[in-house]
Amino acid sequence: MLKTRWENLHKLLNLCTNLPIMCNFTLKSFVTRQKMSTFAHLKFHNIIFMSLKIVVLAKQVPDTRNVGKDAMTAEGTVNRAALPAIFNPEDLNALEQALRLKEQHPGSTVGILTMGPPRAGEIIRQGLYRGADTGWLLTDRLFAGADTLATSYALATAIKKIGDVDIVIGGRQAIDGDTAQVGPQVAQKLGLNQVTYAEEILKVENGEATIRRHIDGGVETVVAPLPVVITVNGSAAPCRPCNAKLVMKYKYATCPMERPAELDERMANLYAGRDYLTLNQWSVADVEGDASQCGLAGSPTKVKAVKNIVFQAKESKTLSSSDADVEGLIQELLNEKIIG
After folding, report:
1. How many Cα atoms are found within 13 Å in the side-chain-facing hemisphere of 91?
2. Which of 44, 59, 224, 319 is surrounded by the fewest CB atoms within 10 Å?
3. Are the C-beta atoms of residues 330 and 189 closer than 8 Å to each other?
4. What is the per-residue pLDDT across 48-70, written as a single tens digit (0 to 9) for each?
5. Neighbouring-strand partners of residue 169
6. Is the dihedral of CA 66, 69, 70, 76 positive or negative?
7. Per-residue pLDDT tens for 255-264?
8. What are phi and psi of 102, to 5 degrees?
9. DSSP for 39-65?
10. Cβ-contact 253, 279 below 8 angstroms
C-alpha cells in the first residue's frame, strides 16, 4: 500500500518537475504511519507539497441579548435550556480563517470541535454548511457545568484523540463568559505555541504560520512554528454565509443523541447509506478523560449570577468639565470605595 503511494507520488513529481508552480498533496497517511511531524511537508525542486489538518474550537452560547430570570440554575451554572442558543460570534471569525487556509492549501481539512448538550450539534452543522469537513461533539453529563479550566481540559483531550493537528483555531472569547482563557489554556495543556488576538493568517509555509494580530496601539505581525493554537478577534473578517448545496447535503446530519429513539424507515435507510450524516459524538470515556477534571468536579470557579443591567434615567447624571464637577465625582468615587 505504502509502496503504491510512493509510486504515485513519483509519477506526480515527474509531471510537475519543470513547472514553476506550488502544488499541494496530502501526505497525512504516510506521516501518521511513520510517526513524523504533524505537519505534512515535502519540498522537491521548486514544488512544495503541503496540507493542513485544522481544528476549529466553536461554542454554542446563550444569546446574551435575551437573558431572563431563569438564566441561572440553583447550582450556579448557566441554564442553557432556558436561553436561545447561537454560534459564538468570534468563533465564526475563526472558522472563516480556517476555511481560507483550506482554500489556499488543497488537501487540507477543517473540523469543528464543540462541547455541550446534544443540541450543540447544530454548531457542527453550521460549520459544515459553510465548508467544514467534519466535526466532533463532546457531550456527557460529566462535562456539564465546566468552567474554563475544565473546558480546556476536555478540549485538549479531544484534540489529542483527533491527532496530527497542525492548527487549532478559535474565537478570542465566548460572549457568555468573556474570559478569553480557553484558547491559551488549551495551548498550555497541549504544549503548543499560541498566538492570540489574531486578525488574519497571512500565510502558512515551511512549517510556520505568519499571523497579523491586533495589539494595544497598533498591529503586529508574528511568525509561529506549527503546530499552533490561534485565537481570533471579532474584528477579523466575518464568516461567509452558508452554502445552499452544503445545506442540502448536511441538513439531516446529526449526532446519535439528537435522534429519536426510533427512526422511521426512510430516515433509517438514509443514515445507513450516508455515513457523513452521522456526526462524531464523544463522551469522557471516549476521549480517555479524567472525570475529576471535567465539568463541575473539575471547575474551581462558579458563576454567582447573570443579570441584565438596564440603567434608568434617575440613575444617571450629567457632569460638566468644570473643576468643581470633576472634584465632586472623584470624592464620590472615593466615598463609595470604587477608587482609592
Report:
1. 27
2. 319
3. no
4. 557 899 999 999 988 766 666 66
5. 56, 230
6. positive
7. 899 988 888 8
8. -60, -40
9. SEEEEETTEEEEE-EEEEE--EEE-GG
10. yes
